[in-house]
Amino acid sequence: MRILSGMRPTGKLHLGNLVGALQNWLRLQEEHQCFFLVADWHALTTGYADTSALAANVREVVLDYLAAGLDPARSVIFVQSHVAEHAELSLLFSMITPIGWLERVPTYKQQMQEMPDRDLSTHGFLGYPVLQAADILIYKAEGVPVGEDQVPHVELTREIARRFNHFYGPVFPEPQALLNVVKVLPGIDGRKMSKSYGNQINIADPPEEIRRKVAQMVTDPTRIYRRDPGHPEECSVHMFYRVFAPEVQDERAEACRQAARGCVECKRLLGDALVEWLAPLQERRRYFEARPGEVGEMLREGADRAREVARLTMEEARRAVGMFHA
Predict the structure, then answer these.
(1) Which residues contact 32 (CB under 8 A, 6 or more apart)?
(2) Does residue 35 contact residue 4 with C-beta atoms inside 8 Å?
(3) Environment class of residue 98 by beta-carbon count within 10 Å: exposed (0-12), middle (13-18) or buried (19+)?
(4) Beta-bridge mates of residue 77
(5) Mind giving me the DSSP string for 37-105?
């Protein structure tokens, strides 16, 4: 199966990105042909007014990809804007995509409400699902690893593929959404981990920062005193234990229920476990961070490999539409 996925470069990636996407990508790259992009054009859909940090954010995301274990020998890792065919196919798709399809995408109105300080009444923001469809279909990807909130985007991609094939003949497959195993990792305030909430623990955070953030995590709200029995199933800290230290989760949960250990101590132990768990990832990150030339060459090679596939698809699409010239 051919796989396509990517992330927008809005800064360093956090543990929610790691368990919600990157760990799934690692499994997929062992069995499938994978294309993983850094979606810098998509970053412009909401961040067009200030692009001063865009290049630096792209580098941060690439470093986190490599730190997590994505392997350029197994997967094609590249920057979206380095393969111009994405934009050309998006333009073709925009000619056949009804406005109503875009206005009904759930994240359209949701992001408008979540970002009231930004003017999102732009063609780029309304049409970003079309660009997303082009990202997927330019490689004729059959599988797209996503969270549940992104399933409507994959369905829209399928509808665009069907509509194109109806008008011009069979060119594109209808990709399937591959749901990630872990749905949502909470942030330190108990809400979904997100940079927009400022509640994230980053993959690259130093040990003292990780411990400081873990110490701020909300715990079982019904456990007011140290002597009160806890309810680990209601506690964000224990969700982290299930993900990052499953070998001790049962003991930690039982100690919580029996009030044998307080929340402060439980968070201290979690901080230590997280620091240990992230140590090899951070070591890989430092390795690549010290070798910007090697990373740049990896991205150039990734773009070349991606372009080989994208060029052939684009030629086929042009021929189907009747725009190919020898």
Answers:
(1) 1, 2, 3, 143
(2) yes
(3) exposed
(4) 36
(5) EE-HHHHHHHHTT--TTHHHHHHHHHHHHHHHT--TTTEEEEEGGG-THHHHHHHHHHHH--HHHHHT-
Q: Give the span between the Cα atoms of 113 and 174, in whole angstroms.
A: 31
* Nearest Cα residue to 63 out of 283, 289, 277: 289
What pLDDT does residue 205 have?
Answer: 98
Given its phi and psi angles, is residue 34 left (phi above 0), alpha (psi -120 to 50 degrees) or beta?
beta
pTM of the predicted model, to two decimals?
0.94
Buried b vs exposed e over 240-258: b needs ≥16 C-beta within 10 Å? bbebbbeeebeebbebbee
Q: Which residue has the higher pLDDT, 113 or 101?
A: 101
- Name all domains of the chain by residue range, CATH numbers in brackets: 2-185+291-321 (3.40.50.620), 207-285 (1.10.240.10)
Average pLDDT over residues 239-259: 94
Rg (CA), the chain: 22
The β-bridge partners of 186 are 192
The Cα–Cα gap between 318 and 326 comes to 11
Token pair in block for residue 172? 């594109």
Of 248, 230, 224, 249, which is closest to residue 239 (Cα–Cα)? 249
